[in-house]
Amino acid sequence: MNIDRADWHYGGDFPKDLPRENGATHIGMFVGWAIRRGLVGELHRELDPEAVEAVADGRMSGRAFLLDLCDEKFTNEVLDDEGNRFAGAYYAKGYFEDYAECVGADLPTLYHVADSPENRAKVEAMLDRRFDQWRRGRLGSSR
């Protein structure tokens, strides 16, 4: 099941002056966070252990992982059961708003967010807070 796909973001209002991979930045930040928190699915743990380790230790971005190893698709196979439950509760229902507020507020579009260590750190801190709220059953209460 598709949670998000980079190619869904390339058309329409995607800025013509940006590289296509910018359509995967927001997805990759979520995927990278999930990998670093041990929420990666069995498929990638078994088939791509070196890439999982590279994301976990910062040698590869989540965006590169998504583009190179997931056929540009964020599916339920990318995450383990807990990761999928969290993504189901949050990804389409609040992640984009939080992402925009966290790293995209002063940019022309969310596609202009740089896939940088600084932005990843901001997004991951926000995701850690939301994940903690979700685990405590309070995800929607402090929006």
Write the topology of this structure.
Elements (H helix, E strand, L loop, with lengths): L1 E4 L19 H12 L5 H6 L1 H8 L5 H8 L3 E3 L5 H24 L12 H19 L8
Helix pairs in contact: 1-4, 5-6
Written description of the protein model:
- The chain has 143 residues and is mainly α.
- The protein contains 6 helices and 2 strands, in the order βααααβαα.
- The chain has helices at 25-36, 42-47, 49-56, 62-69, 81-104, 117-135, and strands at 2-5, 73-75.
- It has a two-stranded antiparallel sheet.
- The chain is globular, with a radius of gyration of 14 Å.
- 33% of the residues are buried.
Question: Any key phrases for this structure?
Answer:
2 strands; two-stranded antiparallel sheet; 54% helix; mainly alpha; 143 residues
Side-by-side strand order of the widest sheet = 1-2
Order of helices and strands: EHHHHEHH
> Mean pLDDT across all residues, rounded?
95
Compute the gyration radius: what is it? 14 Å
Proportion of residues in β-strands: under 5%
Q: Residue share in helices?
A: 40-55%
Number of helices: 6
The parts where pLDDT drops under 50 for at least 5 residues are none
**How many strands appear in the DSSP assignment?**
2
Give the oligomeric state of the chains in this entry, treating copies of one chain as homo and distinct chains as hetero. single chain
Helix-and-strand structural type:
mainly alpha
The geometry reads as: globular
The first-to-last residue Cα distance is 27 Å
Let me know the largest β-sheet: 2 strands, antiparallel
